[in-house]
UniProtKB/TrEMBL annotation:
Biological processes, Gene Ontology terms: cellular response to misfolded protein
GO MF annotation, one: Hsp70 protein binding
Protein name in the entry: J domain-containing protein
SUPFAM superfamilies, sorted: Chaperone J-domain
Keyword terms: Endoplasmic reticulum, Membrane, TPR repeat, Transmembrane, Transmembrane helix
Xref: InterPro entries: DnaJ_domain, DnaJ_domain_CS, DnaJ_subfamily_B/C, DUF1977_DnaJ-like, J_dom_sf, TPR_rpt
Length: 407
């Protein structure tokens, strides 16, 4: 099989060209051909990325003039971001509802509280609650300050609770966005989520997409199973790279402690956080203090494909950067190498968590087979399915990191 390696590399390189040109069908074709020839590291991730990009809706063929309602909602969101939102266009009930949703999104068992359903709620009850609430807090219909944040919280709650696997993870771990974790407390919690509190936990979950899918044909049983593809972002704070992830974990721990008392310690957490961050060395950033560096999904403004290539970093991990990155940061090889180290570390953590999630799912299949008391042939079939369950993320992590697959 070793003699096919060179041909596999040619197919992979050709597929990358198609990927950069946006021809995802041909990219998938040649990535899969490369995989058949030789199991090069990173191919599974590239195939997953192509399929994810291929499934995204393409932009309309021509520009459309936004409706008056859409334009007003856009203005409202901009006003909220600038802290100058005007409450005069909203009713007291709209403001009360938005405030309640945002407040509930920061509590324990937030998703259930946001949708206003019990933890034992059925899929139908969850769907009904989402249908009713999302219409009331949608920024196009609700001009109250914070409606954008409330709408995101409602979308994230539905995306999690309507998916059986994510709901199980959420119920057992309390993680607000299981899709970003692969099944555990997310190492990308700060990387993929856009901000603190309830409104920024949207990573791969686009509340507008959920809304459109729900009201334009439904979502079936949820946002889909599987183990998802990476889609996180890296942020810098005033302390440099990586400050926000720790801060978010601190805020999540703070909310848990508030539920059981411990107010005095909570007041010290921000101070402790900044003291700890002062000992961490990160590359300096000349842009604004909250600039974003990369995304592992093709999503505006991250539209320029890149791959890790610097010495000492696992090669060929694809990621995307903004036009601003291409104009400024790309000129500094040192900064780019530091970004690629973060890409490598994040992808390493992502694969570890995805692997754990796949192993957990396999154990669940095995347990179901072992506890099945019906027909023996059915039980044998269930056991065979469990044993044959592919741990693709585990293998990819082994190829890339455990075997030091640096080329």
């Amino acid at each position: 099989m070793e003699e096919n390696k060179e041909q596999a590399e040619k197919c992979r390189d050709l597929a990358k060209t198609y990927l950069k040109n946006g021809d995802y069908t041909k990219a998938i074709k040649f990535f899969e051909k490369s995989k058949r020839l030789y199991p090069l590291p990173g191919l599974d991730g590239l195939i997953t990325r192509c399929k994810s990009l291929q499934s995204q809706p393409s932009p309309s063929s021509g520009p459309r003039r936004p409706s008056a309602a859409a334009q007003e909602a856009t203005n409202n969101r901009k006003a909220q971001e600038n802290g100058t939102a005007d409450v005069r266009g909203s009713t007291p009930e709209q403001r009360r509802l938005v405030s309640e949703v945002v407040r509930n999104s920061k509590k324990q068992e937030a998703h259930y509280k946001v949708l206003g359903v019990a933890k034992s709620a059925s899929d139908a009850e969850i769907k009904k609650a989402y249908r009713k609430l999302s219409l009331k807090v949608h920024p196009d219909k609700n001009p109250a300050p914070g409606s954008d944040e409330a709408f995101k919280a409602v979308g994230l709650a539905y995306a999690t609770l309507s998916d059986e696997r994510k709901r199980q993870i959420y119920d057992s771990t309390g993680d607000v966005d299981p899709d970003n974790t692969g099944g555990s407390s997310d190492p990308f919690a700060g990387f993929r989520r856009g901000g603190g509190g309830g409104g920024g936990r949207h990573g791969e979950v686009d509340p507008e997409d959920i809304f459109r899918m729900f009201f334009n044909g439904g979502m079936g049983g949820g946002m889909g199973g599987g183990f998802g593809g990476p889609g996180f972002r890296v942020y810098s704070s005033g302390t440099g790279f990586g400050g926000m992830p720790n801060r978010r974990h601190t805020e999540r721990g703070r909310r848990q402690q508030e539920a059981g008392g411990g107010q005095g310690l909570l007041q010290l957490l921000p101070i402790i956080f900044f003291i700890l961050m002062s000992f961490v060395s990160f590359p300096e950033e000349t842009a604004t203090s909250s600039s974003q560096y990369f995304s592992l999904t093709h999503k505006h403004p991250y539209t320029n494909p890149m791959e890790t290539k610097h010495r000492g970093v696992v090669k060929d991990i694809p990621y995307f950067v903004s036009d601003k990155f291409m104009r400024t940061t790309i000129r500094d090889p040192y900064k780019v190498s530091q970004v690629e180290r973060l890409v490598e570390k994040s992808y390493d953590q992502f694969l570890q968590n995805e692997c754990r999630a796949q192993r957990k799912h396999q154990r669940q299949l095995q347990q179901r087979a072992a506890s099945f008391r019906g027909d023996q042939r059915k039980r044998a079939s269930m056991q065979a399915d469990a044993d044959a369950f592919e741990l693709s993320r585990c293998q990819e992590h082994k190829d890339l990191f455990m075997n030091k697959g640096r080329r």
